[in-house]
Amino acid sequence: MSIRLGELAQRLGGELIGEPEVAVTAVAPLDAAGPADVSFFTNPRLLAQAAQSGAAALIVSPANSARIGAGFRGARILTDNPYAYFARVAQLFAAQAAVLPPTGIHPSAVVAPSAIIAASASIGPHVTIEAGTIVGDGCVVGSGVFIGRNARIGAGTRLYPNVAFHDGCIIGARCIVHSGAVIGADGFGFAQDEGTWIKIPQTGVVRIGNDVEIGANTTVDRGALADTVIEDDVKLDNQIQIAHNCHIGAHTAMAGCVGVAGSAVIGKHCTFGGAAMVLGHLTIADNVHVSSGSMVTRSIREPGQYTGIFPLAKNADWEKSAAIVRNLGTMREKIRDLEKTVKMLVEKNNEQS
Amino acid sequence: MSIRLGELAQRLGGELIGEPEVAVTAVAPLDAAGPADVSFFTNPRLLAQAAQSGAAALIVSPANSARIGAGFRGARILTDNPYAYFARVAQLFAAQAAVLPPTGIHPSAVVAPSAIIAASASIGPHVTIEAGTIVGDGCVVGSGVFIGRNARIGAGTRLYPNVAFHDGCIIGARCIVHSGAVIGADGFGFAQDEGTWIKIPQTGVVRIGNDVEIGANTTVDRGALADTVIEDDVKLDNQIQIAHNCHIGAHTAMAGCVGVAGSAVIGKHCTFGGAAMVLGHLTIADNVHVSSGSMVTRSIREPGQYTGIFPLAKNADWEKSAAIVRNLGTMREKIRDLEKTVKMLVEKNNEQS
Amino acid sequence: MSIRLGELAQRLGGELIGEPEVAVTAVAPLDAAGPADVSFFTNPRLLAQAAQSGAAALIVSPANSARIGAGFRGARILTDNPYAYFARVAQLFAAQAAVLPPTGIHPSAVVAPSAIIAASASIGPHVTIEAGTIVGDGCVVGSGVFIGRNARIGAGTRLYPNVAFHDGCIIGARCIVHSGAVIGADGFGFAQDEGTWIKIPQTGVVRIGNDVEIGANTTVDRGALADTVIEDDVKLDNQIQIAHNCHIGAHTAMAGCVGVAGSAVIGKHCTFGGAAMVLGHLTIADNVHVSSGSMVTRSIREPGQYTGIFPLAKNADWEKSAAIVRNLGTMREKIRDLEKTVKMLVEKNNEQS
Question: Where do the H-state alpha helices sit in C69-154?
Answer without folding.
Answer: 82-97
